[in-house]
Design brief:
Elements: H1 2-139, H2 143-160, H3 177-192, E1 206-208, E2 219-221
Antiparallel strand pairs: 1-2
Length: 222
């Protein structure tokens, strides 16, 4: 009886050990499976993060490309503006030369007109002097007429002198463009920028305004 129990006990012990090993193997397999699932989850999360990083990199590259495109467009516009500025500068220079030429022509015409008016005034003065002498010889001296002429002269001078600043703009004066340009170049601009109008660019000493009677012209010394 004892001989029979010993081999059976041995088999039971071996079977128990085998069951314990199988359970341990199952537990290890379950743990490995859980670790595998966790590893897969971590790998999935890493893939998601990698995809997000790739998306951000793509967005950054897109923004960089847009910035490069805007920079190229800005450079092109800058070149266009430079060309436009050079063209405008050349046009302005040409206009300035034309204006100077017109001003020179106006000065020449003014000099000729001044000379003609001077000769006419000289002749008129001589004629008036001759007529006055003839009248004096015929009628003798008349103090009343002299006083009357003096009053008229004083009245005319009083009307010609401006004592108040009139509210008149250049745009209110119709026509007379050459006269207005000459007045600006001779009076207004030199007073605003006196440092420029020196030496050969010194403005005129006077302007002769002439025209038909009643238009208010007179010789003004600057």
């Amino acid at each position: 009886m004892r001989r029979w129990l010993r081999p059976g006990l041995h088999r039971l012990l071996c079977a128990a050990e085998a069951d314990a090993r199988a359970e341990a193997a199952d537990a290890s397999a379950t743990l490995d499976k859980q670790n595998l699932v966790e590893a897969e989850e971590r790998a999935t999360a890493a893939n998601v993060r990698a995809s997000a990083a790739e998306t951000r990199v793509t967005a950054v590259e897109t923004r960089a490309a847009d910035a490069d495109a805007r920079a190229e467009a800005a450079e092109k516009k800058l070149e266009e503006y430079k060309k436009m500025a050079k063209t405008r500068a050349a046009e302005d220079k040409q206009k300035l030369l034309e204006a100077e030429a017109r001003a020179t022509a106006a000065q020449m015409k003014l000099a000729e007109a001044t000379k003609a008016v001077g000769e006419y005034t000289k002749r008129a003065t001589e004629a008036e002097t001759s007529a006055a002498k003839a009248n004096d010889l015929r009628e003798g001296p008349r103090q009343d007429d002299a006083d009357e002429e003096e009053k008229k002269l004083r009245l005319a001078l009083t009307k010609a002198i401006v004592t108040k600043k009139p509210n008149v703009k250049w745009e209110d004066i119709a026509g007379l463009e050459s006269a207005k340009i000459l007045l600006r170049m001779t009076i207004i601009t030199p007073r605003r920028f006196p440092s420029i109008f020196t030496g050969k660019r010194e403005p005129y000493k006077g302007i002769l305004l002439y025209g038909p009677p009643g238009t208010g012209e007179h010789l003004s010394q600057l």
